[in-house]
Specification:
The structure is a single chain. The protein has 2 domains: about 240 residues, BirA Bifunctional Protein, domain 2 (2-Layer Sandwich), CATH 3.30.930; about 90 residues, Anticodon-binding domain (Rossmann fold, 3-Layer(aba) Sandwich), CATH 3.40.50. About 40% of the residues lie in helices and about 20% in strands. The chain is built from 15 helices and 16 strands. An 8-stranded mixed β-sheet has the order 1-5-6-11-10-9-7-8, sandwiched between helices. Strand 15 and strand 16 form a beta hairpin. The protein starts with 15 loop residues before the first helix and ends with a helix.
């Protein structure tokens, strides 16, 4: 019986895998511009880490997290997101004492047992950035600017930004009572999950996929304290100064309990109704609540699967060889193999099939390879010490060059 992949999991094949690699390369280039360094976090952590940081009433913890008891009797979980692991590493490894800006990024697979849909899988790749230890609105503006720069570099320009502020702990404490009273009054209209958790965390209803849309227009709005209002106003000023267009969206909450003050989402109309490409926000209290120093922070996470889906109509970079080497005679195999090595030494992507196959079979493979040129060595070329160059993508006559000159000739043709 054939063994199939699990629902919500998939093989990432070319050209999708090449598109993922290009997004990752663009991200690394942008992170270097902004002074971020890579941090690689474990795939499995203690379950308690995600419960305490992400929140007991979040969908991730209540319904989506893959958790189990390991052989040592410990409750562990496969990471559903990256921020808790980064914060844990920041505390455990004393990264606050390094004397450098605590700017980190991660690239890795996350796991959530949610319903698969367009651009969403149970195993998915995230690129995330965390700037820890900077309470300034300049850090907020830089973080959002960097994210848009990354999306543009990856090939998705002209995105829009939704912006909101959730205030500080005191703002939220006051708002919680107001919102709870309102939700109690319309409890019969709420979905079952929201009715079950409004007493524990009424703000979760605002992020509910069912109740959130109508609550956005009817629920009371959060009132910011003077400090939070000034911070939010300054963030907006700095984004305008940077030429970043945005929309203040009072209904934007984000789905994790640790967010404070600035929250944001980047949207693209190319995704239809599921138009959020990525998002993030401040989490000024998270590091301290997990036993670390008082360290305000801001970050975001980008779903690479969703971004790659938006870029699917663009040609994937790389993958195809520039040239395809063919041995058109039995005795030409060694010379053809040497030509492969010479081409690659010159920085030219080269490939072949099986030098023992017929010329027709090798040419068929060359046509399917996507190469621009075929390099043929047969009996005549062996005697003359030459290589025949045959265009595959564009019309043109084939021609011969001396064997030692083949790589340099190819480089000129490819560059032109």
């Amino acid at each position: 019986m054939a063994v199939h992949s699990l629902r919500g999991f998939r093989d990432l094949l070319p050209p999708d895998s090449e598109r993922f690699a290009a997004i990752e390369a663009a991200a690394r280039e942008v992170f270097a511009l902004y002074g971020y360094r890579e941090l690689r976090i474990p795939t499995i952590e203690m379950k308690e880490l995600f419960v305490k940081s992400t929140g007991e009433t979040t969908d991730i913890v209540e319904k989506e997290m893959y958790s189990f008891t390991d052989g040592g009797g410990r409750e562990v979980a496969v990471r559903p997101e990256g921020t808790p692991g980064v914060v844990r590493a920041y505390i455990e490894q004393n990264l606050s004492q390094s004397g450098r800006n605590a700017k980190f990024y991660y690239i890795g697979n996350m796991f959530r047992a949610e319903r698969p849909q367009a651009g969403r899988f149970r195993e998915f790749e995230q690129i995330g950035a965390e700037h820890i230890g900077n309470a300034s609105p300049f850090a907020d503006a830089e973080t959002i600017t960097m994210l848009l720069k990354l999306l543009e570099k990856a090939g998705l320009p002209d995105c829009t930004v939704d912006l909101n502020s959730l205030g500080c702990a005191e703002c939220r404490r006051n708002y919680r009572q107001t919102l709870l009273a309102y939700l109690r009054g319309c409890q019969a209209r709420l979905c079952e999950p929201c009715r079950g958790r409004i007493e524990r965390n009424p703000l979760r209803a605002l992020d509910c996929k069912i109740d959130g849309p109508w609550l956005a227009g009817t629920a009371p709005k959060l009132a910011l304290c003077p400090d939070c209002a000034a911070h939010f106003a300054r963030v907006q000023e700095l984004l305008k100064l940077s030429g970043i267009g945005f929309r203040v969206n009072p209904g934007l909450v984000r789905g994790l309990d640790y967010y404070t003050r600035t929250v944001f989402e980047v949207r693209s109309s190319a995704l239809g109704s599921q138009d959020a490409v990525c998002g993030g926000g401040r989490y000024d209290d998270l590091v301290k609540s997990m036993g670390g120093p008082s360290a305000p922070a801001i970050g975001w996470a980008l779903g690479v699967d969703r971004l790659a889906m938006l870029l699917k109509d663009r040609a994937a970079p790389g993958g195809d060889p520039a040239v395809f080497v063919i041995a058109a005679a039995k005795d030409a195999a060694d010379r053809a193999f040497r030509l492969l090595a010479d081409a690659r030494a010159a920085g030219i992507a080269a490939d072949f099939s099986d030098f023992g196959l017929s010329l027709k079979s090798q040419m068929r493979s060359a046509d399917k390879s996507g190469a621009s040129f075929a390099l043929l060595i047969g009996e005549d070329e062996l005697k003359a010490g030459t290589v025949t160059l045959k265009p595959l993508k564009e019309k043109g006559d084939q021609f011969s060059v001396p064997f030692p000159d083949a790589p340099s000739t190819l480089s000129k043709l490819l560059n032109s």
